[in-house]
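Problem: given the chain below (321 residues), write out its structure.
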Amino acid sequence: MEQPSDFANKLFLLLQDPTFFDVVCWSVNGDSFIIKDMPQFSATVLPKYFKHSNFSSFVRQLNKYDFHKVKQNDKKSSAWEFQHPFFNRNHPESLENIKRKIPVKRETVNVEDRVSALEQENLQLTQQFEQQQKSIQTLLHDQMTLRTINDQLTNHLQSLNKLLTNQLGIQVPQLNPHQYSQQQRLMNRPLHSPLHVLLVEDDQVCIQLVQKFLMKYGCTFKLAIDGISAINEVEKCKFDIVLMDIVMPNLDGASATSVIRGFDNDTPIIAMTGNYGREDLVTYLNHGMTDILAKPFSRDDLYAILEKHGNWSLQSVMDDQ
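Solution.
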């Protein structure tokens, strides 16, 4: 025969103890028990039978063994009444049926399905990344092709210059197609109009500093936080100048500039960087960058760059206002 639980057995025994009948007792029918005086029950009964005086802990134990609180008809009553189908004054043999409730098992997640879903998501992300890489490589290839054409044009003009000099004694000025298109752009732009600037930067401190300076100078600007975003912005909109950080996620500033030069040879792109050794400068210029703005820079440093490459002056903007 299975033994009743220790908790149920102690509870049954304390209800037989006449010492506490004025504190806790059976109901009239004997199918529930009533705690008449909860403070006294906690202070005297619980320490004797359960070695503690925590009434909340006692109620939690009742719940674990599936006892239920009986609603009192008298709302003013402070009594607590509990009932269990197998807890009966006249049937102590039923105590063995009182057991701790088995926790309801949570529905387990199908791990294999979840792993499969994650693998599918990872595959899609990988495919998207590879597609972006292919697009970048295509743009870089197109840029190199255009640069080759420009070099061929320059060589042709130089050959023509030598021919005219040797045969006719005429010295033709050296012509760089990129410089020519930039000069044309600067001449066509009104001096007094505010600059439209693309700021390509992922460092929040630098972003706030440059935005503060640009706003003070009356410039309009847009923000891109990586090389890919910068390329997209230049494709969509014409800017007077691009301030390009070098070290960024997704695509660095130098590589982004190479791509941009594949479809835009005019817009000045200024490298904002703390690395400006000789080899670094050569790398930036070879990628098509126009000038360097060395970090950390001051407001005057930025002003000088804007004035130099934007056909713009602060005084002209202030006069226009």
